[in-house]
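Intended use. Records like the one below are meant for learning the mapping from a protein sequence to its folded structure. Do not use them to infer anything beyond what is encoded.
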Amino acid sequence: MSFLTTLTATSAPDDGSHLFDVVDVLASSISTLITPMLLLMAGVMVIMGVARLFRNLNSGYSDGSGWGFLVMGLLAVAGAFGLPWLMGSYDAPKGGTPTPRPTSTPSTSAQPTTTPEQTSQPLDLTWLLIVFGVIGALILTVLLIWIITIAAGRARRSIRAAHKSAEAQRVAKERIAAAWQGFHDRHNELLRKIVHSETDWDSLFFLPALTDPNVPQTYAMLRAMRAAGTQRDTAGELPADLPAGVDLTTLPYPKAVEAFAVAWDAAERNARRLGQKGVPLAERKLIKEIRTLLDMAENSAASQTERTLAYRRAQKLIESLETIHVPEKAIAQLEERQQLMITAN
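Structure written out for the chain above:
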């Protein structure tokens, strides 16, 4: 029956039950329109609430809007299921049963007339259970989403913290390894300086104290050199599982290299300060002659005979030196150069 037909039928004043039919049709129409809209609104609210919760969780700031949307979604669900019941509760029973009138029937004896009693039906509360079940399911779903979100956020934070810790440990290990290699490089550089001081003729003749073990500073430097070499042989490898903030200078090998560097600086400063002060004047003249002969012995423009004679003469003069200590390494290098010149020719 359409709405107009129902409304026309209610115009008859002799039957008031048709008015309740019209109200029932109106309530059903309104419920049919509003219920889907409320359910759609509830779904949108829940989606927006969950999205906001995720956004707030990732940003670390919560303004409460996510929970507000979720509460509004639950209210919309409650309205979608509760509004039809509210509208239906005011509907009168369709086609009210008229009270039967007593009729007189011929009888031989007067019998009492009784009115049939209406049997009351129990109230159907199934809809209420369904509403509470849906609301409970939505609450449990929201709680489950919230718990999963919190757990996922904690897991992500734990993973990020683990990555940061691993990266920090890797950087610390690389820094320690580079610093350890720096001590090896510094040790090698000090050894090159000592070799240069023992094989360079200008250093030997004009800084004689730098190769003289009788000088206290030079002797201390040579001792520090031997100690650093021993530590390199025994503790030169980088120890495993060093803490990130370790001071490498407290370990044996770096400590020995530091002491070697300090001793070298002291010996070099002392040698430059002394210069040729302890060398007699006659021996200084001899040094100049030796230097001239060595230049001739290493001059490729000179003949082989001239170079050989200059080399032999310089070697004899070097052996006659008394105040200047010429290391054997320098003599061996000089002989090696002379042999190379002879072989080349």
